[in-house]
Design goal:
Helix content is 39%, strand content 12%. It has helices spanning 33-43, 65-74, 91-100, 114-121, 126-140, 158-165, 192-208, 220-235, 239-242, 285-291, 293-298, 306-310, 321-328, 343-359, and strands at residues 2-6, 51-55, 78-81, 104-108, 144-150, 172-177, 212-216, 258-261, 267-268. The protein has a nine-stranded mixed sheet. It has 14 helices and nine strands. It is globular and about 60 Å long. By secondary structure, the protein is an alpha/beta fold. Helix 1 packs parallel to helix 2 (65-74), helix 3 (91-100) crosses helix 5 (126-140) and helix 7 packs across helix 8 (220-235). It has one domain (2-303): Aldolase class I (TIM Barrel). It binds S-adenosylmethionine (SAM) and iron/sulfur cluster (2 copies).
């Protein structure tokens, strides 16, 4: 299970797609140090302790960030951090992260060249800074991850990015598929067919890279990867052994193995799904995750609607609940950006076109 704690909404960058609508200063209702420590205590009480991701905004905009990391370590939480690539991430600060007990640092890179990335992040020099940070982490032995948000603007650079990242000895490449929330509300998304093409490229890359590849807010990659694995098995030769299974936290989705706590302590199924389900400290994080009706419904594949309801992959995939909500206002409606038509729906489409023929 992953718990994302948005320690602040402050950030020095101004990405056009930012779900948090991050801005330069901390908001007045940001949880205090004391409250944040209490929240971390509470998160450590899950029956099986989650992986804590300290995110933002830019977590480095909080002066007490090392105190929070040390506390998370003390209470037994494995912790990652996602700083924004700004001058705040000095070599000294990267060293302190390791000392304080951070398990992994994730840095965003959104293009294969400075022009694409810097335009995306709204900050000249951000591309170079990201590489400097990742190289320093590699030098001191701090494990790293790269996050990339895929849009029509960088879609054509997927292979080039995969190649470029191999030099950095990262552990994981997480490819985010745009969710139209926050500043991305009216951003252009990839078409469903583009998703399938992206999945094919990611699958090919996952077979040849030493780092793992996962998708974020595109659970239908699991459907794609499972089909690929089955095809390899059906081929029946020794190729099956050579097929590397993709890294996918099995079946996790918004509210299902994922929880998000905002800068002011509100609980959400994910950072991309702004439906509030409680508030720290009035409510308890573990109880909200286990008992809140929205969270329970999101873990029930029978609540899905449209083609996701009819789909044989609904438990493994279920579509991005955040994108469904962003586009329709209904967190259970079908994933709009999926090209797959489940066989049962195909059959009913065939029947209805047959009956149309009969009518003519
Ligand atoms: C919320 S950010 C926080 C960490 C840090 N500020 C950063 O941008 O790397 C984590 C990841 O979410 C991505 N992201 C932000 N808004 C998004 C959106 N609307 N859709 C998909 N991914 C988004 C960012 O590009 C980043 O890679
Ligand atoms: S770096 Fe992250 S938090 Fe900052 S504006 Fe960009 S997406 Fe938002
Ligand atoms: S139809 Fe829905 S459940 Fe099936 S693969 Fe597409 S997004 Fe996933």
């Amino acid at each position: 299970m992953l718990v994302f704690y948005e320690v602040t909404q402050a950030c020095g960058l101004v990405c056009k797609h930012c779900r948090a609508c991050a801005q330069t200063h901390s908001l007045p209702d940001e949880l205090s140090t004391e409250a944040s420590l209490g929240l971390i205590d509470q998160l450590s009480k899950f029956p099986s302790p989650p992986m804590l991701v300290l995110t933002g905004g830019d977590p480095f905009c909080r002066e007490d960030i090392f105190q929070l990391i040390e506390h998370a370590k003390r209470v037994g939480l494995e912790t990652s951090i996602t700083p924004s690539a700004t001058p705040l991430v000095t070599n000294g600060a990267i060293g302190r992260l390791k000392q304080a007990g951070i398990h992994r640092m994730a840095i965003s890179i959104d293009g294969a060249d400075a022009e694409t990335h810097d335009e995306f992040r709204g900050f000249e020099g951000s591309f170079e800074r990201s590489f400097e940070i990742l190289r320093e982490a590699r030098r001191i032995g701090l494990p790293t991850q790269i996050n990339t948000t895929l849009t029509p603007g960088n879609f054509g650079q997927l292979d080039a990015m995969a190649e470029m990242f191999s030099e950095l000895e990262i552990v994981l490449w997480s490819v985010f598929f745009l969710v139209p929330v926050g500043r991305a509300e009216s951003a252009t998304r990839l078409s469903p067919d583009d998703y399938e093409q992206a999945f094919e490229l990611l699958w090919q890359q996952s077979q040849r890279r030493s780092y793992l590849i996962k998708t974020t807010e595109a659970p239908h990659y699991r459907r794609f990867a499972m089909k690929k694995q089955r095809e390899a098995q059906a081929a029946g030769d020794d190729s099956t052994e050579k097929v590397k299974p993709p890294f996918q936290a099995s079946g996790i989705n918004d509210g299902k193995g994922v929880m998000f706590v905002s800068h002011n302590g509100e609980f959400f199924p994910s950072g991309f799904m702004p439906i509030r389900s409680g508030q720290y400290p009035q409510e308890n994080a573990v109880e909200v995750y286990q008992e809140a009706p929205l969270f329970k419904d999101l873990r029930n594949a029978n609540r899905l609607e449209g083609k996701c309801r009819q789909c044989e992959y609904r438990t493994l995939c279920g579509g991005s609940r955040a994108r469904a909500y962003a586009l329709t206002g209904n967190p259970f409606s079908e994933e709009v950006d999926c090209a797959y038509i489940p066989p049962s729906q195909e059959a009913s489409l065939d029947n209805s076109s047959d009956s149309n023929c009969d009518a003519q």
